[in-house]
Design a protein that fits this description.
This protein is an alpha/beta fold and about 325 residues long. It contains twelve helices and twelve strands. It has two domains: about 120 residues, Rossmann fold; about 180 residues, NAD(P)-binding Rossmann-like Domain (Rossmann fold, 3-Layer(aba) Sandwich). Helices cover about 35% and strands about 15% of the residues. The strands form two sheets. Strands 8-7-6-9-10-11-12 form a seven-stranded parallel beta sheet, with helices on both faces. A five-stranded parallel beta sheet has the order 2-1-3-4-5. Strand 10, helix 11 and strand 11 form a beta-alpha-beta unit. The radius of gyration is 21 Å and the shape is globular.
Length: about 325
């Protein structure tokens, strides 16, 4: 019987679908994350692994578990997986693209608003006893309507962000992408621009690309210094795309106006990180996909990849590099 190990407490619809397909399931029973050593030991008697983006599926893991036939990732990104080594070993990697597009775009849109009006900082000020009397020139935010939205990585999530900003605030949309997005150009009037122009022109710059060697650390002091001093930087993609020390310095020096982050570098963020106390910053603990609907869709997509593989059918979402 084909068997699958589940590394976390994923939505139960996933394990239920696996069992209904005649697949034997074993699941990590604890709330804490597995160590890599524990995961290697646990999968030795299984042909498939249902894992999360926080599991380290590197060359050492893959070589220790070369008997695996499929690894189904509960995420769209897969920078935690050595895909090239998996392919060499004949292990199929799958992911769950587009399942969390709406949920993640909502977070990006919400962070933009929260930063523009200093919402997180002002909320904290109430608990600190600082809501006292009306001060006409204090704690002023900025309005978003009509400002230029720049998107770095205009895929499915980026397009959902563009749709929200275009419809709600009539924001012109510019973008930098490896390929032109004709759908976005037609639907929201998005205009492709070179990266330096994206930096120089965006009032809000929202990152929606994958973490790759080319994008790792791309947003650093050099790139922040090319942005408008009034710009808001949003990252809901991967923390490794921005250099956090450089972001802190850019905010302190006024190179950019504010930042909204759902991803940090590193993760989890330290409780004493200065970004958490900044007036023009809003930080969330990587909850882009954290809705009931999105997480259920992710679980269903992940296990459908496994079921199709087990039944000898075309796998819906293989990762091929």
């Amino acid at each position: 019987m084909f068997s699958v190990y589940i590394s976390k407490d994923f939505p139960p619809i996933g394990s239920r679908l696996l069992q209904e397909a005649g697949i034997r399931v074993q699941q990590w029973p604890h709330d804490r994350p597995m160590t890599q050593a524990e995961l290697i030991q646990a999968v030795q008697s299984h042909q498939g692994l249902f894992c999360a983006g926080t599991d380290r599926i590197d060359a050492h893991f893959l070589e220790s578990c070369s008997h695996l036939q499929i690894i189904a990732q509960f995420a769209a990104g897969y920078d935690n997986i050595d895909v090239a080594r998996a392919q060499q070993l004949g292990i199929l990697i799958t992911n769950t693209p587009d399942a969390m597009s709406d949920a993640t775009a909502d977070i990006a849109f919400g962070l933009m608003l929260a930063v523009s009006r200093k919402m997180f900082f002002m909320h904290r000020s109430i608990g600190q006893g600082n809501w006292t009397y009306f001060r006409p020139q204090a704690n002023l935010g900025v309005e978003i309507k009509g400002k230029t939205l720049g998107i770095f990585g205009l895929g499915t999530i980026g397009l959902e962000m563009a749709r929200r900003c275009h419809a709600a605030y009539q924001m012109p949309v510019i973008y930098t992408n490896r390929n032109r997005n004709s759908q976005a150009e037609l639907e929201v009037g998005a205009k492709w621009v070179p990266f330096p122009e994206l930096l120089a022109t965006s009032d809000v710059l929202s990152v929606h690309c994958a973490l790759t060697p080319e994008t790792s650390g791309l947003f650093n002091r050099e790139t922040f210094s090319q942005m408008k001093r009034s710009a808001i930087f949003i990252n809901t993609a991967r923390g490794g795309i921005h250099q956090e020390a450089d972001l802190i310095q850019a905010l302190n020096e006024g190179l950019i106006w504010g930042a909204g982050l759902d991803v940090t570098n590193p993760e989890p963020m330290a409780a004493n990180n200065p970004l958490l106390e900044m007036e023009n910053v809003a930080v969330l603990p990587h909850i882009g996909s954290a809705t009931v609907e999105a997480r259920d869709r992710m679980a269903v997509m992940a296990v459908k990849n496994i079921i199709a593989f087990m039944q000898g059918e075309p796998v819906p979402n293989p990762v091929i590099e």
